Amino acid sequence: MMSPELIIVGVLSSTIRLATPYLYAAIGETFGQRSGVLNLGVDGQMLIGAFAAFYIAFTTGNLWLGVLAAVIVGALMGLAMAFVSVNLQAEQGISGIGFYLFGLGMSELLFKMLLGTVETVKGFPDLEIPFLSDIPYIGEIFFQHNIMVYGAFLLVPIAWFIFNKTTLGLKIRSVGENPEAADSLGVSVARVRYFTIILAGILSGVAGASMSIALLNVFQQNMTSGLGFIAVALVYFGAWRAFGVLAGALLFSFVNSLQLWMQVLNIPISTELAIMLPYILTIVVLVLTVSKVRPPSALTKPFDRGD
Amino acid sequence: MTEENKLPSGHTRIDSLEMRGITKRFPGVLASDNVNFDVKSGEVHALLGENGAGKSTLMKILYGMYEPSEGEIFLNGKKITIDTPTDAINHGIGMIHQHFMLVETLTVAENVALGLPSSRGFLTDLDKVSARILELADIYGLEIDPEAYIWQLSVGQQQRVEIIKALYRGAALLILDEPTAVLTPQEVDEFFVIMRQMVADGHGLIFISHKLHEIMNICDRVTILRDGAKVGTRNIADITKSELANWMVGREVSMTRELEEIERGPSRLSIENLSCDNERELPAVKNVSLNIYSGEILGLAGISGNGQRELAESITGLREITGGKVLLEDEDITNARPGEVTKRMLSYIPEERMRDGMIKDFSIAENMVLREHHIPPFAEKGFLKLKKIASHSDELIKKFRVKTPSRETKAGTLSGGNIQKVVLAREISRNPRVLIAAQPTRGLDVGATEYVHEQLLEQRRDGTAIMMISEDLDEVMALSDRIAVICEGEIMGIVERADATPQKLGLMMAGESGE
Ligand SMILES: Nc1ncnc2c1ncn2[C@@H]1O[C@H](COP(=O)(O)OP(=O)(O)OP(=O)(O)O)[C@@H](O)[C@H]1O
Ligand SMILES: [Mg+2]
Question: With a cut of 0.90, is the ipTM above it?
Answer without folding.
Answer: no
